[in-house]
């Protein structure tokens, strides 16, 4: 009788152990390492996807790292330091032009306009683009999307950025705001929330939007190496679905609610300033409402790069863009 009790106890313990093991198997999540090119309010839907648990709902365990620069971000992706990169689509073209054997493929778009604003040191209530001629303009890094879009918009208004301006491009991205405040530049391109913070503190005045001027472009996109996509189609589809959930959530929610959710990523910025900046981006349609990068946007990107003299090759849309997962997610 005693042996039977022990056997029964052992069987119960074994059953509990096996049940726990099976539960762990069913809840095991696929790890995905994301490298973002910078920490930016412009990427609000990505932080929403993390904080609202959309990646987790899709069975993914994401690890986010900020790699601070397009070159570093692509190095992380190509060397397997990251599985997915959030960076400008132009970087995939640069990699392709270097005869890479394992291309970076754009599979889910996050932002669809430029995210910078033209900020002046002095108020310009009657601003005209011609006012820039002869001025000192603190620009962005040569070959990066902010600078290329900036030049594209200036040329659209018959301004030659290299002949009509004193164009400064010798300041690192992270130091541009400080250099504008302490230097002689009269104008600068700034992202949010820095642009709004400067306006609130009287350090500058927002007078135009490069996003509104340049039209839709695949400004920031999730991309992965072709080999990773081939080996992890299920994870890529789940990733895209989580991004789409976040995009729809951002579209439906108020700027104040979005600011509350993503504030942990911007602890040094006041909540009302975050909300004001998000509202500015929402109003100009900067956040993509779905993850599809369409061909018209791709062609606009190449046109902008070509105008800046930075297009190394005329890469066909079908070569570096994969909308299969985005289309499946939206249709289902």
TrEMBL record:
Keywords, alphabetical: Signal
Keyword Signal part of the UniProt annotation: yes
Subcellular location: Periplasm
Stored PROSITE patterns: PROKAR_LIPOPROTEIN (PS51257)
GO-annotated cellular components: periplasmic space
Family per record: Belongs to the bacterial solute-binding protein SsuA/TauA family.
Name this polypeptide is given: Binding protein YtlA
């Amino acid at each position: 009788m005693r042996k039977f009790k022990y056997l029964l106890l052992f069987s119960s313990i074994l059953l509990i152990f096996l049940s726990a093991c099976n539960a762990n198997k069913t809840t095991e999540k696929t790890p995905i390492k994301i490298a973002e090119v910078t920490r930016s309010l412009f990427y609000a839907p990505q932080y929403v996807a993390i904080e609202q648990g959309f990646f987790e709902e899709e069975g993914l365990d994401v690890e986010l790292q900020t790699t601070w620069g397009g070159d570093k971000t692509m190095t992380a992706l190509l060397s397997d330091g990251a599985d997915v990169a959030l960076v400008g689509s132009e970087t995939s073209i640069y990699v392709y032009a270097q005869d890479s054997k394992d291309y970076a493929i754009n599979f889910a778009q996050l932002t669809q306009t430029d995210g910078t604003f033209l900020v002046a040191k002095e108020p310009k209530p009657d601003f005209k683009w011609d006012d820039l001629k002869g001025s000192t303009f603190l620009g962005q890094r040569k070959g990066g999307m902010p600078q290329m879009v900036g030049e594209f918009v200036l040329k659209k208004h018959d301004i030659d950025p290299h002949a009509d301006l004193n164009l400064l491009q010798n300041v690192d991205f992270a130091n541009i705001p400080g250099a504008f405040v302490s230097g002689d530049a009269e104008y600068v391109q700034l992202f949010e929330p820095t642009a709004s913070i400067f306006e609130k503190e009287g350090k500058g005045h927002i007078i135009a939007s490069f996003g509104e001027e340049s039209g839709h472009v695949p400004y920031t996109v999730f991309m992965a190496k072709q080999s990773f996509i081939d080996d992890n189609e299920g994870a890529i589809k789940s990733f895209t679905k989580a991004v789409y959930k976040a995009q729809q959530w951002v579209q439906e929610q108020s700027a104040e609610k979005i600011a509350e959710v993503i504030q942990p990523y911007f602890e040094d910025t006041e909540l009302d300033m975050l909300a004001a900046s998000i509202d500015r981006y929402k109003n100009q349609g900067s956040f993509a409402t779905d993850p599809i990068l369409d061909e018209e946007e791709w062609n606009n990107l190449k046109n902008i790069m070509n105008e800046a003299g930075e297009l190394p090759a005329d890469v066909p849309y079908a070569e570096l863009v994969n909308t299969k997962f985005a289309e499946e997610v939206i249709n289902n």
